[in-house]
Design goal:
There is one protein chain. The chain is of the alpha/beta class. The protein has a single domain (about 1-200), classed as 2-enoyl-CoA Hydratase, Chain A, domain 1 (Alpha-Beta Complex), CATH 3.90.226. Helix content is about 55%, strand content about 15%. The protein has helices at about 25-40, 60-65, 70-90, 110-115, 140-150, 150-160, 165-170, 185-195, 200-215, 215-235, 235-254; strands at about 1-5, 10-15, 45-50, 95-100, 105, 120, 125-130, 165, 180. The strands form two sheets. A six-stranded mixed sheet has the order 1-2-3-4-6-9, sandwiched between helices. A three-stranded mixed sheet has the order 5-7-8. The radius of gyration is 18 Å and the shape is globular.
């Protein structure tokens, strides 16, 4: 599901779950093991990428179907809490985490990307939070990260208008540190990873710790509000009908 390649102080983790690399428990487990390995190796940088056409297309349809069952609110809250914990661990690890984003990074997949310290997107990559179209919200504290990184106006555009934007627009909005052509993305990302890994490991650890320390207090409050919103939405008929229609479309497409 995730292959590893370690050289010098860089750990390259390549996701290979399915075409969209959708998130489920198995992918979260694998990512947590990768973070354990980065800690064990004392890697300066963890380079997260995909061998598939897409970085991460969000929640797996099997998980979404589970949210519509009788205890779906609890299942949705549990999934969101677990993803949030994973994303917070990415932020908290002393290792610099660098996302190479090709194709889709949608919903919780965007949340995964935004939790990383550094991001490079290809010009044709697509990011967004399409959950609002089907009566949900992005999980894992993604709204907070989106607003912090891009500002309120851009976050409103993605969250309320439901816009899906390409890599060039994401870069313009401050959601990507670097932009690369599709054909040179892998090479350009490797070059950035090597450049970062040459910095002082001790200085990088302290820089990352200080960058994230200021906003810790508000994060717990946001997570609580997010859980309340999920419980309300998944218990409401209109969102449930939209989710059901989405699952039918996905099943017919597959």
């Amino acid at each position: 599901m995730i292959s590893l390649d370690s050289h010098e102080l860089i750990l390259v983790a390549t996701i290979d779950r399915n075409d969209q690399n959708t998130i489920d428990d198995s992918l979260v487990d694998a990512l947590e093991r990768i973070l354990d390995e980065a800690d064990r190796q004392q890697s300066v940088l963890l380079h997260l990428r995909s061998v598939r056409p897409h970085f991460c297309g969000g929640a797996d349809p099997v998980r979404v179907r589970r949210w519509l069952e009788s205890d779906g609110a609890a299942a949705l809250t549990a999934d969101s809490s677990r993803w949030s914990s994973l994303f917070e661990r990415i932020e908290a690890t002393p290792t610099i985490v660098f996302a190479e984003i090709r194709g889709n990074a949608l919903g919780a997949g965007l949340g995964l990307a935004l939790a990383c310290d550094l991001r490079m997107m290809s010009t044709s990559s697509r990011i967004g939070v399409p959950e609002v179209r089907v009566g949900l919200l992005p999980a894992g504290n993604t709204i907070r990260r989106l607003t912090e990184l891009s500002g309120l106006v851009a976050a409103q555009r993605l969250l309320i208008a439901g816009d899906i934007i390409d890599g060039a627009e994401a870069h313009r909005l401050g959601l990507s540190h670097w932009l690369s052509d599709d054909n040179s993305l892998q090479r350009d990302a490797a070059a950035v990873a090597q450049r970062v890994a040459k910095q002082s490991p001790a200085a990088l650890r302290e820089a990352k710790r200080l960058l994230y320390s200021a906003s810790q207090e508000s994060r717990c409050q946001t997570a609580t509000i997010e859980r309340q919103a999920f419980s309300l939405l998944i218990s409401s008929e209109e969102p449930r009908q939209r989710i059901e229609a989405l699952l039918v479309r996905l099943a017919n497409r597959g």
